[in-house]
From TrEMBL, chain A:
InterPro entries: MetI-like (IPR000515), MetI-like_sf (IPR035906). This is Carbohydrate ABC transporter permease. It comes from Paenibacillus mendelii. The chain crosses the membrane at residues 12-34, 74-96, 108-127, 139-161, 194-217, 240-261. Residues 70-261 form the ABC transmembrane type-1 domain. It holds the Pfam family BPD_transp_1. It comes from the Bacteria. SUPFAM superfamilies: MetI-like. It is found in: Cell membrane.
From TrEMBL, chain B:
The chain crosses the membrane at residues 7-31, 72-94, 106-126, 261-282. It is a multi-pass membrane protein. It comes from Paenibacillus mendelii. This is Carbohydrate ABC transporter permease. Residues 68-282 form the ABC transmembrane type-1 domain. The keyword Oxidoreductase does not apply. Belongs to the binding-protein-dependent transport system permease family. It holds the Pfam family BPD_transp_1. Signal peptide: none annotated. InterPro entries: ABC_transporter_permease (IPR051393), MetI-like (IPR000515), MetI-like_sf (IPR035906).
Length: 277, 293
């Protein structure tokens, strides 16, 4: 009996402790978004707010164009997902299922991007965008995001296309379907789970990305959420409660997306790790 | 058009847009960065070839050595925190009789999906010198270990790296946990019959069988640490002085604040070479042989 209790404590104790480490900072954030500075840093550091100050949220909305940043992040993320999925699907299909001499070389070339830090292309990229006048549109970030997510998406789609039996295309060909019909009508529906995984992963990436956005976007009307948060931090650094409110609001969508699709996110992660570095 | 021609046309339609886009947006810019690192260039006027001058200047620059050290510290913290803890928690989660597995896994992963800016701003408050969560915790425990985490010369980069470790540990946990799950049960049964203890079993069976996963984890943790930017940019902007500089920040500052595109390119080139060296090293050191059960 005693042994069993000890064993349980040894298993669940550390696991529960790390739940605390992982979640408490976020709960603490939620609490302080309803507190004033005095409560946050001296009178009530740890616990629930003594008084729920909704005005922090009102102040945040008044001072911070949250809807604009949400809209921008949403357009950028959806745009990135759509272009990445289309380009990567077509290429992966050709690499995994069609017969050509350079299928394997092409795939390796495309997946090499997984291990290249985005930093290395920033300087030439800025010059390209200046030349093409992309800087005043959402494409300023969508284009580099797609370029860098293609490798990851190709790895996932390739793995899925490879796992399908070859008889599918053979019987489609016997029925007289051409390559395009086979691809759009038969193959794409079969890899829907992979499309879901890639979409969610790429969406979260684009929603949270910071460095490229920082360099490429200068027009305030185009700024995505992370840039908006940075701006807010520099403008209202003394109002911690309102800052907390903005942080909570901008975090809710990603947590929701994750809680709804946690399986897909984890699957995408695991499949992509199978690539040889 | 013959059917062979139709097939080849389809092949072009499927592959050329992606290959072309990737080449123009990724491959060519990479080559340009290396090329421009040998030039004196402000991004607008004509670039002048100056040989290795940018690199010589880089190695003379105090910021460079601070950045190099900080990148290594960052990578070290990520490896220990994310892979070390990821392994321990992964083993604990794979215990067959465990209840609430899904809850634990989801909870540990939540910080991963947050914006890095939010996480950095949250930890600014946690590290706050006057009454921040961490110092308040120390005070509560009656310790006088309180300090200015983010501005202390010996704590700054460690505190920043810890933030990243905390945020992304879940990635490694999921990878390691999934890999443990794929190890065949009969290996553990054999160990049990031989009377191996819990820790012996995991040291002798689990960890060696994870070498492919560890390879991937090490590459993303180490290159992630060397590339670090977002956390330090939001939390300290490199300061105070240059104590929390990283290579990416050097590149950012040179190119986008002082218009020294050539010098910035040299910093980027060194960073990529450093990442490449570590990737090769990891591939060489971590067991290469295919695992067979």
């Amino acid at each position: 009996m005693l042994k069993r209790i000890t064993k349980r404590t040894l298993t669940y104790g550390p696991l529960l402790f790390y739940v605390l480490v992982s979640l408490y900072p976020l709960v603490w954030l939620l609490f302080y978004s309803f507190k004033n500075n005095e409560e946050i840093f001296s009178t009530n550091v740890f616990g629930i707010p003594s008084e729920w100050r909704i005005e922090n949220y009102k102040n945040a909305f008044a001072a911070f164009d949250l809807l604009l940043y949400f809209k921008n992040s949403f357009i950028v993320s959806i745009g990135t997902v759509v272009f990445t999925v289309i380009l990567a699907l077509m290429f992966s299909y050709a690499a995994a299922r069609m017969k050509w001499k350079y299928a394997n070389a092409g795939r390796i070339y495309m997946t090499a991007g997984m291990f290249i830090p985005m930093q290395i292309i920033l300087i030439p990229l800025l010059i390209i965008e200046r030349t093409l006048h992309l800087q005043n549109s959402y494409l300023a970030v969508i284009v580099p995001y797609v370029a860098f997510q293609l490798s990851f998406a190709t790895i996932i789609f390739y793995a899925f296309f490879r796992s399908l039996p070859y008889e599918i295309e053979e019987s489609a060909a016997i029925d007289g379907a051409n390559v395009y019909t086979t691809f759009f009508r038969i193959m794409v529906p079969l890899v829907k789970p992979a499309i879901a995984s890639v979409s969610i992963f790429v969406f979260l990436f684009a929603w949270n990305e910071f460095l490229v956005a920082l360099v490429m976007i200068s027009d305030n009307a185009l700024k995505t959420l992370p840039l908006g948060l940075l701006y807010f931090q520099t403008q209202f650094s003394s109002d911690w409660g309102a800052m907390g409110a903005v942080m909570v609001l901008s975090t809710i969508p990603t947590i929701l997306v994750y809680l709804l699709f946690s399986e897909q996110v984890e699957n995408a992660l695991t499949v992509s790790s199978a690539v040889k570095g | 058009m013959t059917s062979k021609q139709k097939y080849n046309l389809a092949l072009l339609v499927f592959t050329v847009p992606t290959l072309l886009f990737f080449t123009v947006m990724v491959t060519i810019p990479i080559l340009q960065t290396f090329q421009k690192s040998f030039f004196d260039w402000d991004g607008l006027s004509k670039a002048t070839f100056i040989g290795f001058d940018n690199y010589i200047r880089l190695f003379d620059d105090d910021d460079f050595w601070v950045s190099l050290k900080n990148g290594l510290v960052f990578a070290f913290v990520l490896v220990v925190y994310q892979i070390g803890l990821g392994t321990l928690l992964g083993i604990a989660l794979s215990s067959k009789s465990l209840r609430g597995r899904k809850f634990f896994k989801t909870t540990y992963f939540i910080p991963v999906v947050l914006s890095g800016v939010v996480v950095s701003q949250l930890w600014i408050a946690i590290y706050n010198t006057d009454g921040g969560l961490l110092n308040s915790l120390f005070a509560l425990m009656g310790s006088n270990y309180e300090q200015s985490w983010l501005s202390g010369e010996h704590t700054s980069i460690w505190a920043i790296a810890f933030t990243n470790g905390w945020q992304n540990m879940g990635v490694h946990l999921v990878l390691i946990y999934t890999a443990i799950k794929s190890i065949p049960e009969h290996l553990y049964e054999a160990a049990k019959i031989d009377g191996a203890s819990f820790w012996t079993t995991h040291f002798k069976i689990t960890i060696p069988l994870l070498s492919e996963t560890y390879k991937f984890c090490l590459i993303i943790a180490i290159t992630g640490g060397l590339n670090a930017f977002q956390n330090m940019f939001v939390m300290t902007s490199g300061g105070p002085g240059n104590i929390s500089y990283t290579f990416t920040f050097m590149m950012y500052k040179a190119a986008f604040r002082s218009n020294e595109y050539g010098y910035g390119s040299a910093a980027a080139a060194v960073l990529v070479i450093e990442c490449l060296l570590f990737t090769i090293l990891i591939n060489k050191l971590v067991a290469r042989e295919k695992i067979s059960y």
